[in-house]
Amino acid sequence: MSTFLLAGGGTGGHVNPLLALAEELRQQKHEVLALGTKQGLESRLVPNRGFELATIARLPLPRKLSLSLFAYPFRLARASLQVARLIRSRKVSCVVGFGGYASAPAYLAAWITKTPLVVHEANALAGFANKLGARLTSFVAVTFPNSNLRNAVVTGMPIRREIVLSASGYDKQQARVEMGLDPMLPTLLVTGGSQGAKTINETIMGSVDHLIAAGVQVLHIVGEASELKEYSKPGYVRMAYCNAMDAAIAASDFAVSRAGSSTVSEFAACGLPAAYVPYPVGNGEQRLNAASLVENGGGLMVSDAEFTPGYILQTLIPVLSKKSELAKMSAAAKGQAILDATERLGDLVSKAMDTGNRD
């Protein structure tokens, strides 16, 4: 039995693959220790899945010239030494990082202690931490083939196995009944992530009548931060958060969503085509996350500014009305999925350990 330190957090794109690999390693009877921060999503999700979480101070890289920027290298060095002590005390055999605030110190700590290191990048565009990690190891895994990390292995996105298995095993009509929907009507799933997406929510609310009139029912996950007024109408089901995404995906024929790496990968694995509305702030990684899938016919891409009621009327409703088109898009989406991503990443971890043990 070996001990693994899995570092990452902040967003679902970092936490979800961490947990998928953690489950795989636990099934193999290995010990798993996660590293994150007290503020990130990992502080809730990791303990909920029964894994130990060690925390370090949140270390955002200052973007502007300031005293914080000059202090950053010293804070990073202090955190790295803290993680190095953890690696030694727990006799960690391998460090696997997924990006986020906790990863950069973990990468430097692995280098300091000469511990085998593997880096997994969820998005098409890597951030500072994973760019650093990729310089410290030759074992780099990426989710998408258009990644900006060179000499990396495309393993895909490790996703929750239960989502794919459960969604594929569901009877579509039964899933619709469970979600409070009509079992016979085509269904549009709308989600903007756990906090919601203002543009998506407002555009859908401005188009509900047109969608229902076209014979399409809507399952709308508005997010826990949504400020939408209460609304109820036959053919429209709203919830702030969905604890049964497998049923929601199984019930749906098409989706409207942001293009986070986990979402794109889960929809593809389940064969659910979608109109992806990339988050308009940042370095554009969400557009690149969905680019290959869209280019191969597994979905549509629309900018945040262009996702309007007019787009729904002129583009989305015509697509939803064609069963044959939806079937083609579903098959294309599934054709882009990497269903054994967790196993592929696990194989890369084994190679890193074998190489490290020979050195």
In short:
With 359 residues, the protein is an alpha/beta fold. Helices cover 47% and strands 15% of the residues.
Structural commentary:
The protein has helices spanning 12-27, 42-48, 67-89, 103-113, 128-136, 161-169, 172-178, 198-205, 208-213, 245-251, 261-270, 285-295, 309-320, 323-336, 341-358; strands at residues 3-7, 31-36, 52-55, 94-97, 117-121, 140-142, 153-154, 187-191, 217-221, 236-239, 254-257, 274-276, 299-301. It has a 7-stranded parallel sheet, with helices on both faces. A 6-stranded parallel sheet has the order 10-9-8-11-12-13, with helices on both faces. By secondary structure, it is of the alpha/beta class. Helix 3 (67-89) crosses helix 4, helix 6 (161-169) crosses helix 10 and helix 11 packs across helix 14. The protein has 15 helices and 13 strands. The mean pLDDT is 90. It is elongated.
